[in-house]
What we know:
The structure holds two protein chains of two kinds. By secondary structure, chain A is an all-alpha fold. Chain A has helices at 3-13, 15-38, 41-61, 64-68, 72-94, 119-129, 132-138, 141-152, 157-164, 168-190. In chain A, helix 1 (3-13) packs across helix 2, helix 5 packs across helix 9 (157-164) and helix 8 (141-152) runs antiparallel to helix 9 (157-164). Chain B is elongated, with a radius of gyration of 26 Å. Among the domains of chain B are: 37-111, Double Stranded RNA Binding Domain (2-Layer Sandwich); 216-268, DNA Methylphosphotriester Repair Domain. Helix content of chain B is 35%, strand content 16%. Chain B is of the alpha/beta class. The longest helix of chain B has 12 residues, at 73-84. Chain B has helices spanning 13-21, 31-38, 73-84, 97-104, 123-132, 143-149, 156-164, 191-201, 206-214, 234-237, 250-255, and strands at 43-50, 53-60, 63-68, 88-90, 141-142, 177-178, 219-222, 227-229, 244-247, 259-260. The mean pLDDT of chain B is 88. The A-B interface holds A 14, 16-17, 19-20, 23-24, 27-28, 30-32, 35-36, 41, 44-45, 48-49, 52-53, 56-57, 132-133, 136, 147, 150-152, 154, 157, 171-173, 175-176, 179-180, 182-183, 186 and B 4-8, 11-12, 14-16, 18-20, 22, 24-28, 30-32, 34-36, 38-39, 41, 61-62, 85-86, 119.
Amino acid sequence: MPQEAVLEAALAEDLEGCFERMVREYQDRLYSFAHRLAGNPEDAEEITQDAFVRAYRAMKTYPAERIRALSLKAWLYQITLNVARNRRRRKNHKLVSIDARDGDGRALFEPEDDPGSRPDSRFEEGRRRADIATLVAALPERYRSALILRYMEGLRLEEVAAVLKQPLGTVKSNVHRAVNALREALSNSRRGGAMARQEVVS
Amino acid sequence: MKHDAATPAPDTSGVLRALRGSPSHRAPASLLPAVLSRVGLADLYWLLDSPVGAVYIAASPAGISMVSRAKSAREFERRFERLRGRTVSRAESRPPTVVQALMKNLKRRDRAKLQFDLRGLSEFERAVLMKALEIPGGEVRPYSWIAREIGHPEAVRAVGTALGKNPVPLLIPCHRVVRADGTIGKYSMGGSRVKRALLEVEGVEPKTIEDLAARGIRYLGNEKGRWYCYPTCGGTLSLARSNKVPFHSAGEALAAGYHPCEACRPAA
């Protein structure tokens, strides 16, 4: 029996007794994944913690057969990805509405243009430094997670499709486009980065 | 490497190399304890007084996971981690009342209320420990009794090994298991001297057991009831000395028309 199946069977049998083994087995992978998604260690640790806690609570409500039938690795990646996405969404919600006004009816939010905080400029910076992590971080979400899972986490395409709950064809083409975009960005930066910025992803 | 459909033309090899070569990060050491504590699976410990001095007692949500003497909390924490493969931290709460009461009086009969976390032990080892739990305070049984009771009469030596690995001494009273020849035997938490002292605290006189054994006496018979027992069986202790009939073996007792006591279940 492969390692993953052994662990699934053990968890189905004795969740409380085997949960720690599961955390030890997957904590480096999931933390690394969360780090790539979030880009910093603080968020990465919180995301990973939340993901394991959610996994535990979910498994507590599952009958044994369902735990045994989980594709544990893909399932854990999926939870981690969801936690990371939800956090991002929550963070965005916390921002004051662009139309918010103070007591005197003045706009709280002046749409000041800080070029340093725009995604485009993050991309430009990554391009300048030929820094792959920065470039990946600046990719649109639908390309980024597929790319990270496939090439940084080393999952098979079928596994990526399972994590993202997308058809295999969609995953293939997203990964393909992401790689092409990165290649273009990198080669531009090597040529001096003076070229006009092209559409990142076709 | 074989190119799958999603791997574009070869000139992307630099990108793929960079992606695969990007550093991965190891989870910080704080992650596991935080997760376990959030889902309520962390082990916590208390320092309690016991008949053998201060002991550290750890429990997980599954039950008591370790009882151990240690020179310092740090030493206990390290030992726990080494033996159980997980971390343990000092409890803020008070220990369970049953545990507190038992540390004051080991003979209390409410051990049945205790849950033990014996994860990591084999089925055989658990069976041995659960059987030791049945021996009442003030009594002792030989290793062979446990072996027989759990259905492995030939595994006497393995019973001794399993008891030696008892992660929760005092609470699972492995000190109540002695050698068939009457010698008190080994004790994992401080050696035979501590074991003798514990038995004395519980009202067993090690000297008496040893004297009987030295004379080759394994069982005592109740003359009126015509049953035979282990010498420390509660049923026999209450009898007058004159009523006790010594036997060197179960065969001898059976031949004399005695039957085995139903409380202490000697060999038959």
